[in-house]
Every structure is written in structure tokens, then in C-alpha cells.
Fold:
Amino acid sequence: MAQINSLNNRNGTGMITLAKDELELCGLLDENGESDSDVQFLITMDEPGAWTVQVLDQDRVTTDFQANVEDAPVRVGSGAETRR
Structure:
């Protein structure tokens, strides 16, 4: 699923967020719906302006859901607006 986010600044570091519902689908939140601080991500810049984000320990990722990424709407920001 695609999502358009703005780059945020936290203490001089650029940050983006990952959608909570997508993290939940992958089983990466704790029983209270909070981020599991034991989960680590590898972020690689593939080329200027393009990054790949992946969970380091793939055994932690739940893969028993079906997602058709090509048909999913693009979410814009943290609001409810979507675009196709």
C-alpha cells in the first residue's frame, strides 16, 4: 500500500512514519497496539530519492494476510484522504 507523507524534523534528523495499520497487519506492534521497540529496520538508500525499508528479523513479520498493492489507494498524509 502506498502512502504519501511529509518529511518531519526531530532534533535535526529527517523522519517519516509508517502506517500503524500496516505495522499491525505485519504483526510488528505489541498487544497494546504500541510499537515493539525490539523490532529493528534496515533502511537503504537505493538511489538519490529512493529508499528501501525492511525488517531485519523477517521471522517477526506475519505474512498470513492478502494485499493487492497495485489496487490499493494512495493515502496522503495522516488524514483520511486517499488518491487512486
